[in-house]
Design goal:
The complex is a heterodimer of chains A (192) and B (396).
Chain A lengths: L3 E9 L4 H14 L3 E7 L8 E9 L14 E4 L19 E5 L4 H5 L8 E5 L1 H9 L5 H12 L4 H15 L7 H14 L1 E2 L1
Parallel strand pairs in A: 1-4, 4-5, 5-6
Antiparallel strand pairs in A: 1-3, 2-3, 6-7
Chain B lengths: L2 E5 L1 H12 L3 E4 L7 H11 L6 E4 L3 H14 L3 E5 L1 H16 L5 E6 L13 H4 L7 E4 L3 H15 L8 E6 L7 E6 L2 H8 L26 H30 L6 E4 L6 E5 L3 H14 L4 E6 L1 E3 L3 H8 L4 E6 L10 H12 L6 E6 L8 H17 L6 E4 L7
Parallel strand pairs in B: 2-3, 2-4, 4-5, 5-7, 6-7, 10-11, 10-13, 13-14, 14-15
Antiparallel strand pairs in B: 1-8, 6-12, 9-11
Helix pairs in contact in B: 1-2, 1-6, 3-4, 6-8, 9-12, 10-11
């Protein structure tokens, strides 16, 4: 694992990309890391493209700018491929993780010749199966943790159990589904 | 040992306020400081503090309520940003001239217009001459620590001035980062109880607060305010030293980062200082003698100390996150330059206005400044001292 990992999230308002970046920061914090988790605030509205960021490091982080050369990019909604330059500045030794059902050929058109690894996951299917509703952020969180090797699957599951208990204190019925979504995503994220 | 936590800058300030447990908090929500009274009101509702929380109808009323509370003898706090501070304007001066040690967290944001909710320092710079102590914070930790030190500085009998703690809106206020918190009981002990000398609710000493003050007295009262601001320097030093004994975290008037043997340096405040540290580290690896002076205490302004600290450099750039629109340069630049002039320190200094309205300040922007400075070091000439950084070309 590199000393500093920088991650950029692309999502649409309401899909929970910001929450996912904060949950990732939390999980990495709990493994003893120094972390940053911050969204880029714009005119927030449901469905508008949003960006969020994570820095994870063994050393204190002093930089306070957005991330322009991320190690990893997470695309929570593949319709963004049409309108956002998601691979901008993305390091070739890094990877992009996309929530999609598109084929590798179809994705290539949008990735502007990106030479690094491309991972896909059908977060809609997982979310609908595990939760009965479409909340892509939980599967995407598991996917990036696995792809970037931020922690072991077991450590993630253990940690998120605690986080969900806290986050969903008023609706404990969704905890099991979210845990299931994490487990499924850890298994189903695949490199193309 | 402290408590290892991860909090946003706003959460950190709200936690500090919970630990301080002031008598009164009066606030009106405004982005990006809204979360401070929001989290704090939860602490009130949960019974974690016994503060009287006044949900006022405007920022003018928020500051007025704090003034009333402090004049009555209570400890009062508030938080705001940008136009919220603008609406307090009239009361900001009244708070300081009545010598009421109110503590305000200012989450820095551009003052409209046109409407912008993002970070720059135009709000803080608008009140730099209003008689408030102003401390700037690089990150959530410094915002928390400065808040814990605030009351002891402001309430000191030799000071009795209101104090504002600044941090960058969104950049640190909404970024979750590691932080080390103090235990509640240690904060309580460090901050201590407020024992005002004169106050309205003291039956044994009936007083008037804020009566008419015309030609015969106002000048003397203003001179007393100025004297209190001078006294604040020593008090800030002492309180910061006590805080270091408690936490191990050292705070001075400003932080010198790799400045000892530096040839060139950037002077700036708040979160940009962190980004600059990362650039300084990279340049140092390449053998470039770059340094940083991060101003923590902006009011009172440590003019002589900064002039001395910068005196051995060959080139200095002062970064202002607010444009004074005076055709001459930003406020921090003018403070630094006048301090150097009156202390006979002759070093080429240039000014960059940057980051306006939330324009992101990248490491490459800071590298550009050091690259410009290295040219000044070579030639000894600093032409066109009033510059822009990060402005799109061709749109000036």
């Amino acid at each position: 694992m590199n000393n500093l990992i920088e991650i950029r999230w692309h999502g649409r308002g309401g899909q929970g990309a910001k929450t996912a970046s904060l949950l990732l920061a939390d999980a990495a914090f709990n493994t003893g890391k120094y972390i940053q988790g911050f969204p880029e605030y714009g005119p927030e509205r449901m469905g508008a493209p949003i960006t969020a960021y994570n820095r994870i490091s063994d050393k204190p982080i002093t930089v306070h700018s957005n991330i322009y050369n991320p190690d990893y990019v997470v695309v929570v909604d593949d319709s963004l491929l049409e309108c956002v330059d998601v691979t901008s500045g993305l390091k070739e030794e890094g990877a992009i993780v996309i929530n999609t059902t598109k084929t590798g050929e179809e994705l290539k058109k949008h990735l502007k010749g990106y030479k690094g690894s491309v991972y896909c996951i059908n977060a809609r299917k997982i979310s609908e199966e595990a939760l009965g509703r479409y909340f892509p952020n939980t599967p995407m969180l598991a996917a990036i943790v696995k792809v970037a090797g931020i922690m072991t699957n077991e450590a993630l599951l253990e940690d998120m159990k605690g986080s969900f208990k806290h986050k969903f204190a008023k609706k404990p019925e969704v905890i099991e589904g979210n845990m299931k979504a994490l487990e499924m995503a850890l298994k189903e994220v695949r490199k193309i | 040992m402290g408590i290892r936590e991860r909090l946003s800058g706003n959460e950190a300030v709200a936690v500090a306020m919970r630990q301080i447990n002031p008598d009164v908090v009066a606030a009106f929500p405004i982005t990006p400081s809204t979360e401070i009274p929001q989290y704090f009101s939860t602490f009130v509702a949960n019974g974690q503090v016994d503060t009287e929380f006044v949900a006022v109808e405007s920022e003018h009323s928020a500051m007025s309520a704090c003034i009333g509370a402090e004049a009555a003898g209570a400890r009062a706090m508030t938080a705001t940003s940008a136009n919220g501070l603008s609406l307090m304007w009239e009361m900001i001066y009244i708070a300081s001239s009545l010598r009421l040690p109110i503590v305000l967290n200012l989450v820095n944001r551009a003052v409209s217009g046109p409407l912008n909710i993002h970070n720059d320092h135009s709000d803080a710079m608008g009140v730099r001459d209003a008689g408030w102590i102003m401390l700037f914070s690089e990150n959530n930790q410094e915002a928390y620590d400065n808040t814990l030190m605030a009351h002891r500085i402001a309430e000191n009998p030799n000071v009795k001035l209101p104090l504002m703690i600044c941090q960058d809106g969104f950049i640190t206020s909404h970024s979750i980062e590691n932080i080390e918190l103090l235990e509640d009981d240690k904060v309580k002990e460090f901050v201590g109880e407020y024992k005002p000398e004169h106050y309205l609710l003291n039956q044994k000493e009936p007083i008037a607060v804020g009566p008419l003050d015309l030609q015969s007295y106002l000048f003397e009262h203003k001179a007393q305010q100025a004297e209190a601001m001078k006294n604040a320097k020593q008090v800030i030093k002492e309180v910061s030293e006590d805080f270091e004994k408690l936490t191990g975290r050292k705070y001075e008037f400003f932080e010198e980062y790799k400045l000892d043997d530096a040839e060139m340096a950037i002077v700036c405040m708040n979160s940009t200082a962190g980004t600059t540290k990362a650039v300084v580290d990279k340049l140092r690896e390449q053998g470039v003698k770059a340094g940083l002076l991060k101003v923590r205490m902006y009011r009172p302004f440590p003019a002589e100390e900064i002039a001395n600290s910068l005196s051995n450099l060959k080139a200095v750039a002062v970064l202002d996150k607010a444009d004074s629109l005076n055709a001459a340069g930003g406020a921090l630049f003018e403070d630094v330059v006048s301090g150097m002039y009156v202390n006979n320190k002759n070093v080429p200094v240039v000014n960059y206005v940057y980051g306006i309205g939330g324009r992101d300040t990248k490491e490459t922007d800071i590298e550009e400044v050091y690259s410009d400075l290295s040219k000044i070091v070579e030639t000894g000439k600093a032409e066109n001292p009033y510059r822009y950084l990060g402005l799109r070309k061709g749109e000036k």
